[in-house]
Amino acid sequence: MVQAPVKKARPKAAPLRVQLTQFTWVKSQQMLVGEASDLFPSEEGMPRMFDIHSPKTGRTFRFTMFKSAGPLYDKEGDVVAWRYSPIAADCPVRTVVIQND
To answer: Which of 11, 18, 53, 73 has the most crowded CB, counting CB atoms within 10 A?
Structure first.
């Protein structure tokens, strides 16, 4: 009896990792703001999740795209920004906004 080959599970790609220094901190809103072309220059579209690493503290936090709100659009219907939230409850950042430049 010949057995069908077992498909090997593809390893999941690690989320993209960017540096905290690539963002602007908006303290009053506990928000980081960055530009898509600076953060993800070679990506096709925006990632569903990514990691932000702080070289100062050595900590890394994972962020995922808002599911309920989705992207922000202008009056012409063009995407102007994407919003992300942290997965970890102890993350000092409440929101990450990536502007479509």
So the answer is: 18
